[in-house]
Fold:
Amino acid sequence: MLRNDDDHQLVAKAVNALRDAMLAGDGATLQAMTMDQLTYGHSNSRLEDKAEFVGSLDGKNAFKALDLGDHVIQVVGDVAIARHTFDCVNNLADGKTSTAHIKVLQVWKKVDGSWKLLARQASPLPV
Structure:
C-alpha cells in the first residue's frame, strides 16, 4: 500500500499526463487514462461522455498551448480531487485561435493501482 504522499505525487503525474495527451491529441492515452463512466463537463455546461471526450481530441491538434496552474490535490482513500486553473489557446477550424482561462475540478479513482479520471467539471472565472 502506498503512503498518501506517494498517491498525491501519482495523481499529480496523472493530471499532467492527461494534459500532455490532450495537447498531443493522443486518443490511446486518453482512452487508457479515463474510466468508462467518465463525465467531462465544460465551462459552458456542455457535458461529454468518454467516447465524446476522447473523440473530440483523438488525432486532432485542438490546442496550441495548454497550461495548468494553482494545483491543489486531495487524496481520500482510492479517490482524489484535483483542482487547477486551466489556461489554453485553442486551434479553431478556420485557422484562428481562441483562449480559455477557467477553473477545473477533476475526480480521479484508483483502479488496479492506476489513477483514472472519473469526472471533470470546469467553471468560468469571474470577469
User: Anything to note?
Assistant: The beta strands are 34-41, 47-49, 63-76, 79-91, 97-111, 114-124. The helical segments are 4-24, 27-33, 50-57.
